Amino acid sequence: MIKLFKVKEKQRELAENASGGAPVKKQSAGELRLHKDISELNLPKSCTIQFPNGKDDLMNFEVTIRPDDGYYLGGIFLFSFQVSPIYPHEAPKVKCKTKVYHPNIDLEGNVCLNILREDWKPVLNINTVIYGLYHLFTEPNYEDPLNHDAAAMLRENPKLFESNVRRAMAGGYVGQTFFPRCI
Amino acid sequence: MAESAATQPSRSRDLDKLLLRPGNLVGPRFEPSAQLRDDVQNHARVLVVGAGGLGCELLKDLALSGFHNLDVIDMDRIEVTNLNRQFLFRVEDVGKPKAEVAAKRVMERISGVNIVPHFCRIEDKDIDFYNDFMIIALGLDSVEARSYINNVACSFLEYDSDDNPLEETIKPMVDGGTEGFKGHARVILPGVTPCFECTIWLFPPQVKFPLCTLAETPRTAAHCIEYAHLIKWNEAHGGTAFDPDNPQHMKWVYDEAAKRAELFGIPGVTYSFTQGVVKNIIPAIASTNAIISAACTLETLKIATECSKTMSNYLTYNGSEGLHTKVAEFERDKDCLVCGPGVLIEVDTSVTLQKFMNLLEEHPKLQLTKASITHRGKNLYMQAPPVLEEMTRSNLCLPLFELMGKLSKDVIHVNGMTNKNNQKVSCLRKLRVTFKGVDGVTDMDTAGGA
């Protein structure tokens, strides 16, 4: 197709004369979808979102959860979110930055929430994930344990579990593990 | 015989059958001639992205199909496990950049071919680099990399005022992919056939195991490996990020996985399986690469010469039980944010962001309320969350022209609410904004529309 070669020459001329300047790589589809998620966020009062890198970096942000019910009432828990350019093909990466005594969050901050891994679907969004995290605090469950000891305690002795949670949140030891104050 | 007497008997004998003779299945603008063959040799620059299993095949196939000006880009170095199928590499090449060795080997074997290697990440090249090629051939193994190149290629695309793509701005891509005995080859003509983003749902999501299964109830060797990789590594190494290309890291994960497998009586944890799980590797089959590459090369030749119509537009191949192959015609997502035309909107340079948002509400095609607007990665206004609304509120009284860097025209993306069947639904739209009376824009648009 000789024409294509000629057409390409024309394109070069066009590019040189273009008033819009050189083409710029567009935002990835993932960034645009995230923009939509963020601009439509509708969070409960107990959850707030922060953007440490300013208003133009939406791909890295933090969420603070202050549970208003349940064992963790009064605690303040910080989560970091990292969103990939192929979002929502891939779930956001979420870590809990506050050390917490919790059956579904381990001491490294890994979170066992089904929609972050095996049950992630592109129709889900950031709002769902934040609600999911909030839910972990109002209804911790011992059936998906990441912190084995905390899960066993919740299952076998909820009263003691509750006092362990209070002690950890106030800043103190549960067993051999020290938890910094997060109230 | 008459034919071979007329032209010098040459290496291009088979190619000449396609390019020097007329035919019934040719494209509408096909003009058979020796000139065409020479133009392919001399002027058609093709970029091969990836110099791995597919990339090696593509370079060889393209060079033998008459493309003599090739570039290849790859950030990887040769590993010993590549040698069974990445046939351009030898044992003594282990550790060298794939792009450089692949280019050198093909040039040694096929005279007259010039291949420029680029040993770097695809993101390291600026966008103009990609614009210099007539066609981009992809031999990649990740969704991320495809998505990136697709985004770059689509960013050259421009539409006229009737939303028809301007042909000279179409950057064709030919994409190959293989997984074991399965593969695909597809032709992406941005603005004409579906782009990668239009059909991203074709890619199956990665299998991810629940963390609690890994922590509590491992049942398979892969569970043990992912436990060591995702949980145990951070426990033991705190700050150090796991590097899948660091053999010591991999060995550590393998050792931990083996211990755990023994504890739970699970068989099957080996070093190579550990690599496979952690790096998400599916064993590659040389013949699949060869078949897919051949299909891609043929399509590249067809795009360049129109010696035949290109396939429409997605070929699948499955050689795992007998052989099954077919071509499916996928459709474009007309609202695709990456390759779609978006909505053309013309405004005065004096219009403030607030006024512009009012215009979006009144615009018959859009009727878009509660707009949040982003331009080249800068958030001009965000409706939510409150922290971002506050940070962007002061932009509302500024002219859009200034907020967009005084460009005469550019693309912005708007998210908001619109009416659909009398219901408020959320939508995300691409807009092509042009400013009235700024140097020559109107001229160009009418030229394109004519």
From TrEMBL, chain A:
Tell me the pathway.
Protein modification; protein neddylation
Chain ranges of the UBC core domain? 29-174
Q: Where is the active site?
A: C112 (glycyl thioester intermediate)
Say yes or no: keyword ATP-binding present: yes
Q: What Pfam family is a match for this entry? A: UQ_con
User: What GO molecular functions are on record for this protein?
Assistant: ATP binding; NEDD8 transferase activity
Q: Cite the CDD domains for this sequence.
A: UBCc_UBE2F_UBE2M (cd23794)
At the top level, the lineage of the source is Eukaryota
Q: Which InterPro entries match?
A: UBC (IPR000608), UBQ-conjugating_AS (IPR023313), UBQ-conjugating_enzyme/RWD (IPR016135)
Xref: PROSITE patterns: UBC_1 (PS00183), UBC_2 (PS50127)
Which family does the similarity line name?
Answer: Belongs to the ubiquitin-conjugating enzyme family.
Task of the protein: Accepts the ubiquitin-like protein NEDD8/RUB1 from the ECR1-AXR1 E1 complex and catalyzes its covalent attachment to other proteins.
Protein name listed in UniProt: UBC core domain-containing protein
TrEMBL record, chain B:
Q: Which residues form the E2 binding domain?
A: 345-436
Keyword DNA-binding appears in the UniProt entry: no
Q: Which UniProt keywords apply?
A: ATP-binding, Ligase, Nucleotide-binding, Ubl conjugation pathway
GO cellular component annotations, sorted alphabetically? cytoplasm; nucleus
List, from the UniProt record, the residues annotated as the active site of this protein: C212
Q: Which reaction does it catalyse?
A: ATP + [NEDD8 protein] + [E1 NEDD8-activating enzyme]-L-cysteine = AMP + diphosphate + [E1 NEDD8-activating enzyme]-S-[NEDD8 protein]-yl-L-cysteine
**GO: which molecular function terms?**
ATP binding; NEDD8 activating enzyme activity
Full protein name:
NEDD8-activating enzyme E1 catalytic subunit
Query: Which organism was this protein described from?
Result: Arachis hypogaea (Peanut)
